[in-house]
Amino acid sequence: MATNEDSIRRAVKLLLEQYGQLKTSEVKKHLDEVIAFDNEDLEPSPTRNETKIMQRIGNIISHQIAPVKDYLSSYRVDKTKGSEAVWTLLTGLNGNQKEASTSDIAKRQRIRRNYHPKKTDWNALIEERGDLGLAGEQYVVDFEQQRVQSFSPADVIRVSHLSAEQGDGAGFDVTSINKNGEIVQIEVKTTKGGLKTPFYMSENEREYFRLNRQSNNLFLYRVYNFDIANGGTNAQIEIITPDKLFNDYNFDPTNYKVTHK
After folding, report:
1. In this structure, are residues 243 and 213 in contact, taking their beta carbons and an 8 Å threshold?
2. CA angle 197, 199, 204 (to 5 degrees)
């Protein structure tokens, strides 16, 4: 199915959580890092010298009547800053969001420059993702929506289940916000067994946590005692910071992707 403008707007939310701020040409350059394009997306536009997906990104700007507009309570598109529109991440709560600071943007872009996720094999991902993992992620999405509802109902929309649509290339599964309106990134690991049951992380995920080891806004939600049959009624969550992950857990290589030389 071709990527429509609504899907693009949601994908840009993730993109800006990684980069902080981008011009329209940069959004076009990087969007495939967070969303898969299909064959129809990559067909030439009949009216412009670019692909259809690139035209749809541009259409978001051309269809925006206001010079400045906020999307999904998460980012702002400003058409007044020069020859290209500028897309900027927002922080804050309940309609009082403001643009991310210059230092915050610089930090996000520095981390992104050092983080090189492997391209997601989308077909393999769909085949390999187990029901347990997806159910655990949805459990965390519901948990986060209830948590945000308790302090800022208008911002529940900012809780997103990224991995269900965009794979594991981001290094985390869910985005939410804290009580200061800052983006919170969450990787979810779910098991039927207890808290000490081993779990698995991809190299993408491990590297993202390593680069963000001192972050106050990245967490691993360890969902355990999760029984799909009862909807996870008795499940529990252990919230683990990156620093705690590397201090208290061992990383043992257990499997490899084998390719012909």
Report:
1. yes
2. 165
